[in-house]
What does this fold into?
Amino acid sequence: MKNLKKILALGLCVAMVGATLVGCGSKAAPAADAAAPAAEAAGNSTDVKGANVFMFKSVGNAFGVIMYDGFSSYMKQVGEACIEKSPAETTVAAQVQLIDEAITGGAKSLSISTNGDTGFDEVFAKAQSNNIPVVSVDSAASADYRITHNNQASSADIGAMQVRAAVMAVCGVPFDSADPSMEASVEKALADYSGDVINIGVLSAGIDTPVQNGWIAEMEKELAKDVYAGKVNPELDKKYGDDEATKSTTQAQAFLAENKVQVIISPTTVGIAAAGEVLTQAKSTIKLTGLGLPSEMANYMPASDSDDEFSFVCPYMMLWDVSHLGASTAAIQMAVQKDGFDGKVGSKFKMEAWGEYGEEEFTAEDNGDGGTGVLTGIPYTFYKGNMADWKDKL
It folds into this structure.
């Protein structure tokens, strides 16, 4: 697991221009003219032939845009062509169609955050037979066809920390940077808590999205611990917004209308931003936490030490260095293509120095799904003590 100092390198100068973000973290890949076409600005090829293809769940998703910024920056640094090919719809079918087109068009590799657990076997087998290495990131591809999976952080940490943050928000306990895991903070909060049983809602992405489902499973494991018994309902109230702003807004409004939960966890940047707007406009007492981008959550969170964090719907939330996640995915592809990295348990590769990061070494470990994964970060909490530093950067 990478140390917290590297996570603090989130300020890799991600500059947002509308829905398009252009990275300036690497000296070898300076920021391009914001008016340039997306492919040209990132230093990409204009078609897939010979290019390293990056595919997120849907085009325009801010999380995916920032991740591709890091991916393309690293590829440019090492002299490789790349292009983003993400679908307009957040579906497996839409991704399968684009993957098939990329294979036919002569893509060099595929890096993908999948929209589901199943439905890819035939097209991934086709990629394999065409010697196109598949590396998944954020949301895992089938272990039968991927080289490895790039995990942004431990699923156990992500799930547990979101539950702890949710409970602390209801109890009115500030985030303490001296307790980054929030484990001690939540134990003390619950020891002092004597109110009604806390009910937690989850506004997730798609019902079949592997990554969020994995985190939710870890949330449920956390809630099964004795510390929560009798004080926090172990059953999560789950709703799905399919990582679409309109649907996520509708689902957040449903939580508001039902009035059954005291806090919502949204483990997706689209969902947490939608819920933040709904709860803020309604002046709701329902609290919010999860995984979000500071730039998108600035209106719903405290921004200075003098703020009362509990006067905002989202006192604190988490994420990681999304740009670095994209860059490390590119580094995996280069290790596969140039250094013979095979993704087997114990196999290692080195990532060249990039942006604020020096040279790094990663090791493939058992991912728990029949394949391997590498770990590139740990959750990082945004709260009133640091939001001012990040809201214009990420």
User: Anything to note?
Assistant: The two ends are 22 Å apart (CA to CA).
